[in-house]
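Q: Protein A?
A:
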Amino acid sequence: MADADDRRKYKPLENVLIRINRDIISLSDVEVRRNNAILRSLLEDILIPEMKEKDPLFEKLFTRVFYGGSFYDGLRVKDPNEFDLDLLLRLPKLSEPKLIPDDDVPGYTILKLNNLPAVKRHLYMLDTYRGISKFLLESEERPYLDNNKVRMWMERVVTRALNTFPVCFGQYSIEILQSTFLVKVHKSGPALTLKLRGYMDWETIVMDIDLVPCFEFDVGHMPVQKLLNRNFQKKTFFVVPKPMNNEMVPNNNRYWRLSYQEQERELMGSDRHQYLKPTIKLLKKLKEKEHPFIASYFIKTVVLLEAEEREDDRYWSTSLSYVFMTCLKKYHQYIERKYIPYYWNENYNLLQSMSYSALDNLKYRLGNIIRHIERNLEAGNPYIIQNYLLTDKELSLYKEQLPFYENENANIAEEPPSSSCIIL
C-alpha cells in the first residue's frame, strides 16, 4: 500500500524527469558516433600496432581493448569527450598465475606467479620471461607482481609509440581519419591520459582518453559468490594496478584492484530493468550539481545493490519518478550509515577513505533535498526537481524547450536553510 501511495505521490515528477533525461542528459548521436570513430581509429589502427612494434613483450601479452567507463556503459551525463579504456593483458599459462585474496584488504588481490621459471625453459619465451621478471616486487622473496612497475612499463610503451610521430608545439601530431590531432600525455592514478585536441567537420574536438593496463583472468581464478550465483555471459574479469591509498598496508604495491566491469554491464543491460540506467544518470546529474566529490561508481553501486535486493523486476518498469525517488532515498540511507558496500564484496566499504564530517554534511544535504522535493510536490510544483539536476545554462535551455513551462506560477515551498551546505 505504501508503494502505491509513493507512486501516486511522485507521479507529477514523471514527465519532468523523462524530459530532462531525454532532452538534456542524453548525448548527441552525431557526437557519439564521431568521437567513437576517432577513438577506435586512434587505438586500433594507429597506437596499438605501434606499441606492438616498439615492445615485443606488449605484443605477446596484449589481447584486446576493453571500452569501459560511463560512455560505453551508456551512463555518461556530460559531453562525450572522456573515455576509460583498459588495455587487457594475459600472462602466460606456463607461469601459473594465481590470485591470492586477503581478507584484510577486501576488493583487492595479490597476483603471484607460481612457476615463472617454466617460462624461462622455453627458448621462444625467453624474452617474455625477462620482461615479466622486471614486474616482480624486489622486496619480496615470493614472485608477486608489482602494480607500480606494470604502470611504469605501460607508460614507457605508450611514450615510445608516440615518439614515432612528429612533435608540434610540444605535442604529438597524429593524423586520424584524415584530420590532424595534437596529443599530449598526462599521468594520473593507474591511468595514462591522452589529451587529444583537433578539428573535424568544422568543429573543435577535445577528448581525454584514460589508458589502464589490466590483466585478464577467467572467472575460475577468483570464485566470487555473486559470479557463481548468476550465469553471466562474460566469463572473464580484470585486475587493475590501482594505487592503494592506505599506508597501513605493508607492501601495498603488490595489491591489485578487482574489476568486474563486464558483469556489471550485463547487470545494467537487462531488458527487465527499464529505468535502471536512466535512474543512475539522474542520480549522477544530481551528484555533479550538488556534491561532485562523490565518485560516480558509488552511485552505480547503490543502484546495482537495489536491483539485487528487489526480487520483483517489475519495480524497474513502474515509473521513472518512483524508481528515481526510492533510489535517491536509498542513496541517502547509505550515506547516513557511512557505508556503501562494494557490490562484489560487502566487506569493502567504498566510503572508507571519506571523512565523517564530509559524509555528515552530505547526509544533511541529501535529506534536505528529499524533503524539499516532497514539500513542493504537495504544493503542486514538480518542476522544483530541475533545480537539483540542471546547471543554469541547462535550465535556460529546458525552459526554451517547454512553451507550457509552469514553474513561474507554481507554488514554491521554501528551500531548507543554507546550513545544509557541504563543507570539505
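Q: Protein B?
A:
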Amino acid sequence: MEILEKFKDLIDKHFIDKHDIAFYEKELGVKPKYLSKLSKKHNASPPCQILLQKQIDHSKYLLEHTKKTVKEISYEMNFSDPYYFSKIFKSKAGMSPTKYRKSKE
C-alpha cells in the first residue's frame, strides 16, 4: 500500500504536467502495469482514474474560484484540445464545465 501512497503524493505534485502513468511508474521504480495490479489488489481505482480525478477536481476548483475561461483552464491543465477537456470533464462531473461553473455561482 505504501507505493500507492507515494503514487498519490507524486500525483499531487505533477498532475498538471504529467498525464502519462509511465512517468509515475518510472519515478516509483516499478515495472509497467504494476500500479494497476496493486490498485486491483487493494480495491482502489485504476491509476489512470486516480490521476484523471485529481485533474477534474482541480479543474472544478479553477472554475469555482477564478474567472478563467474553460479554454484557458483546459490549456492550464495541459489538455491540447478544449473540446476534449470538456468531454472528459462532462464524463466525470456529469455536466459541462460551463454548467458546472453556473451551478456554483
